[in-house]
Every structure is written in C-alpha cells, then in structure tokens.
Amino acid sequence: MLADDLRGLYYIALKDLRAYYFKPPNISWGILLPFAFVLAFAIRNPGDLRELVPGLLALTLLFGTSSMEAIVIVVERRIGSLERLLLAPVRLPALLAGKLLGGMVFGLTVTLVVLGIMLAVFGVSGVNWLLLILALLLSAAAFSALGALVSVAVREIFEAQTLANFVRFPMMFLGGVFVPVAALPLGLQILARALPLTYTVEALRAALGIGAAEHAILDLSVLAGFAVILFALAVRILGQRLE
Amino acid sequence: MSNAIEVERLTKVYEQGQRGTKPVVAVDHVSFQVQPGEIFGFLGPNGAGKTTTIRMLTGLTQPTSGRASILGFDLFRDVTRIKKQIGVVPERSNLYDELTACGNLEFSMQLYGVPRAEWRPRAGELLEHFRLNEKHNVPFAKLSRGMKRALTIAAALAHRPPLIFLDEPTTGLDVMNARSLRKMIAGLRDQGVTVFLTTHYMEEAERLCDRIAIIVQGQIVALDTVEGLKKTAQNTNIIEITFESETNGAETRRFEDRDVAKAVQTGLAQAKGRRLLALNTIRPTLEDVFVRLTGLDREIMLAEKGGKEPGNAGG
Fold it and tell me: pTM of the full predicted structure?
C-alpha cells in the first residue's frame, strides 16, 4: 500500500508539473513578480542591495510554490479530474502530498534560477550551503502546504486567488522582506512571528551570511512545523469536502 | 467463481448540515449481486441513488451501513485493493485537457502501477481499439465529445481491470458516437470484463444488459433479466393513438389497460372529434416497465434525457 502511495505521489507531482506548472506564463510570472516588488523597494530606498536578496528569494519561493498550488485542486474539482486521482489506489494524504510536491519542485526551480543570478552578481562567499538547502526545502514545503490549504478551503478559482493574496500580501510586508521584523511596532512583530515567511527570510539571511545564524535551527523547526500542520489541515478539510 | 459484486443492505444517509433539515437517505438498504462477465444495468430516475451507489462501490463515498464486496475484497477493509482492480468512467469525461490522448493513457497506467515497458504498447493498443490512433498526440481538450468519451473509457481500461463501472456513458453523444460506444461496451463483455452500467436510455439498457436493477428513491424495486422485467408488463395492453392536433400537426398518446378494447375506447374518447391518423398496439418495452415502476411519465423521462434519445438503433 505504501508503494502504491509513493508511486501515486510521484506521478501526480509529475503530471501536475507537465500539465500546469512548467508553462511560460507561470515561469515568467514566478520570477518577474518578486523582482518587480524588490526593484520597486530598492529604487525607493537605495542601499545595500545584497540585503534584499534573502527577501527576493523568499518571495520568489512563496509565489512560485503557492500561486498555482492554490488553484490546482479547485480547478481539478471543478472539471472532475480530481475524482480520477481519488479513484486510483492512492490514499488521500499521498494524493495531496503529490500536489504539494509539484508546487515545491516548481517553486524551487524558479527560486534556483533567481539564486543563480544573485550568486553570480554578489558572489558565493559566506554561504552556508546546508542551511540554504534546508531553508529552501522546508520553506517550499510550508508555502506549498499553504497553497494546498487555500485550494481545498474554497470552491471557486477567484476565491482561491483572493484568499491566497489575502494571506500572502500581509506576509510580504510583515515577514522581514523589506523591513526587518525588529523594526516593526510590537503588535506587528507578534503578528510577523505567526507567519512562515518571517522564518524563511531569517533562515535565508543566515544561510547567505547576511544575518545571525543562532536562531537558524529554530527557524527551520518552525518552518517544518508550519509544513506539517498546514498539510494535515489541508488533508482533513479535503476529506470533509469530498464526503 | 464468486460474484464480481455482492451488496447487502447497503445504505447511505447524508446528514444535513443546516439546522432543522432532516438527514437524506440516498440509498436505502439495497442488496444485489453482479456475476462475473455480465453487463449489469442499474437504472433509475435522477436522484434515485444510482450515482451514490457507484460512488460507494468505487470507494469515493463511505457507506453509512451495510456490506459489500467487490471482486472478493471487502469494501470497508480493502478499498485500496478494490481500486486497483476496477475501472470507472464517470458521467463527465474528466481526463486532463493539457495532456495528449497518449499522455492521459500513460498517466492512468502510472497511477495503477502498470510496468513501464507496457505503457506505450498498451496505449497504442487502446488508441487503435477505440479508433483514436491518429489522435495519440492531440491534447484531450482538442478532441470531439465522442472521442473524449471513448478516451475516458480507454483510460479506465488501461490497467486491464476485470470490472468496470460506466456512469451514463452515452449521455450527450450524437447517434453515431452513441452507437459506436455501445459496440465498445458490448465488446467488453466479449473480453470477459464485468460491466456495471447506469443509463437513462432504456433501449441502451435493453440492448446491452444481461440483467437490470431498477432503483427508485434509494430502493431497488425490480431486478431481473430484460425479458423477465418485460414479462411483468405483459398483462397490460398498450394502444398508441395519433390524432391530428389543433395546429394541423400530429399528437401521439398512449393508453394502457388489461382489456385492449377498453384501452382503445379510452383513447378514442380523447379524440374529441379530431381526425385519427394512426392506431397501433404496442408490445411492452423496458421503458414501459420502467415508467410503471418509477412512476415517471414519458414526458418527464424525455425531459430527464435532455429531450431526445441518441442512437436508438444502437449496437
């Protein structure tokens, strides 16, 4: 049964990547949108551009993993093709994990493109590669699970897009991408601590040698916690919705 | 060999979420068996419980109570094993628009663990069988409705299941496509595949099915061979009378009675001076049995079918 689940998980992810993710508009928007935000901020507040790299990577990963993930399940439920997966010998958590994996692979791919450009421009000295890989993987899992949760919680595509943006945009401004969390008012700092993007930015800053590394383990643990909890919630809600 | 499907007092109750609404009994203690290699028809009006029964038997919906075994596996304990052994064609063709005909078939085989070496040959075999070999590289979205339906059936057969569920397979198809699909379904029986078929089309059921169960309001009200079901209506005579209508067209009506003369008298009394165009005696059909058992009149049946029946002369 586990073999069926693992096989199903892998091929569902592969099918999603082929059918939905690796299309020119997704790839270009996945990279351009975060660049546009960061560039706008850099023009308004010129300074050390290297400081913006962790935020740029975090945003690319957030939008890359969650944008399509947030609507894939809604679309498949509407056209009935989700039922094909439910009829296959694959249990619901494995099915949803396949969806998650598709979002993760796509998000990580576009983020690696941006990372490559950034490392070519700013150099690779001081990069903690292990921390960088773990931060990217765990963040991708957390953001993809967030996208899946949005996707199973709504019925219409416009609702998914609205809900995804409702969650992502406050994260973008509170998560330490443009302004350090420590510089925010206390109330917003507390709110920022409830957002996965905050921990991604912190872990990436540490991985790229820009910020302190002492909280890196905590950041990674929180990201793993977000991934597990959001995934479990998505499985539960999808199960209820299908019944 | 044991039955392909054994269902005993299977029940599905939907608890309503809103306050004050009563639970809905969608399927109410149904029991039946399907033998290996037969085409078993499951008929009923809209909302009778056909789709809910299929959803339970295919593991999409959890039954509230009762027992069922599919190909010897218990529905409550071995649902993943059951899923590996069955193919399902839902009412709506639901393959992936973005994948090609061949890509969709290969994805089905991947999900069901068909060995990699078989993907291409099996896809080619199915595409040829369903006369889609020239469309192997065409995205599903660009196929005609009939081709989509055929490919959806092909995808359900990709892993060679011994049992296939077909939910309204010809709904919405034109005459030629419906005929062609019926031939394919009849061909499945020749290959030893057990078919569980739901349809609105009585002639389709009559031509294809070895046995038929009729479900009304969640309960099975009849289960027999086509001939067995027709015999239940043989005590009744049906007279079909066509009058000239008030707009110079024709209006056909049916009248039933145990006494043929009485049926004719009743019919002629309805003429009210209009010219009689035709008078025929009709041998009871499966549709007559269905109408009697379900309480649906013919106009409602036609409306449920979407106005007309495709491919009456199906094969």
Answer: 0.83
